[in-house]
Design a protein that fits this description.
262 residues; alpha/beta; 9 strands
Length: 262
């Protein structure tokens, strides 16, 4: 009887130990955008202070072909500029204020070029590229390679044709796809070899996790915007990563299990 009790105790301890060591990497959507203006170097650095190991950048292009980190197609919401970024020259974009709308403390903050973001994050963070329509894929691939982020990044495309072009030009780089179930994930597997899949937390099932891990795919829970109600679900469903806006809230929940920064 004593042996059974001891064995049961050790089994429970072992299970708890495995659970305690489960790492959920934090990916920040537009940086820590409740602490600093979104898609800026300041919001990226704020995220790194709160446990993030991945920073998302939204890739858009100016009229003269310079790549910038901007979520919207237009400049109106997050800068003092107006109209489409694609209609403006880089020399005009570089003069815009991308911080005053958020707080006077950030007056004069510039809309960062992708090259500036990568220089700022080298050795500090991995990068998730959300590649917007109209982005010249060869230019992006060349920049990522030149900055040394080929193996420190993954990419998502809302446009399937852009995804196919990217796969042809950069077969060594990693792809993230979005899926609500295994059927949709298997659709993407017929087109590419996903390294990551993004899915709503409540849709992460043991079967989905097992399938993904068996195929070398890491599961990222989607918790964007200010809704923090699903943070515990992310932890309970044992996602590999979480894509969120509020690392300063999620980080204390998992701080003791996070891997070291890159």
């Amino acid at each position: 009887m004593k042996k059974v009790v001891v064995f049961s105790f050790l089994l429970v301890v072992g299970v708890l130990s495995v659970c305690a060591q489960h790492h959920i990497e934090i990916v920040v959507h537009r940086g820590a955008n409740a602490l600093a203006p979104e898609n800026t170097v300041a919001s990226a650095f704020a995220a790194l202070k709160h446990g993030a190991t991945w920073v998302e950048v939204d890739v858009r292009v100016s009229k003269d072909g310079v790549l910038y980190n901007l979520h919207d197609a237009t400049l109106d919401r997050t800068t003092n500029g107006h109209g489409l970024l694609a209609d403006m020259l880089s020399e005009e974009v570089d003069r815009l204020d991308a911080g005053s709308w958020f707080s006077p403390a950030f007056q004069g903050t510039r809309l960062p070029r992708i090259s500036e973001m990568l220089d700022s994050l080298r050795g500090k963070s991995n990068v998730f590229f959300d590649v917007k329509r109209g982005t010249p894929i060869p230019a992006l691939v060349n920049l990522v390679r030149a900055k040394g982020f080929s193996d420190k990044s993954f990419f998502w495309f809302g446009d399937e044709q852009m995804l196919r072009e990217f796969i042809h030009l950069a077969p060594e780089m990693k792809i993230k796809v979005n899926a609500s179930d295994l059927r949709r994930l298997k659709y993407w597997q017929r087109i590419c070899r996903p390294s990551y899949v993004e899915i709503a937390p409540e849709r992460i099932t043991p079967r989905f996790l097992r399938y993904c891990h068996r195929h070398g795919i890491r599961v990222m829970a989607a918790c964007q915007e200010d809704d923090i109600s699903q943070f515990q679900t992310v932890i309970d469903r044992r996602a590999d990563l979480v894509n969120l806006d509020r690392p300063e809230i999620f980080w204390p929940m998992v701080r003791d299990t996070l891997p070291p920064a890159p």
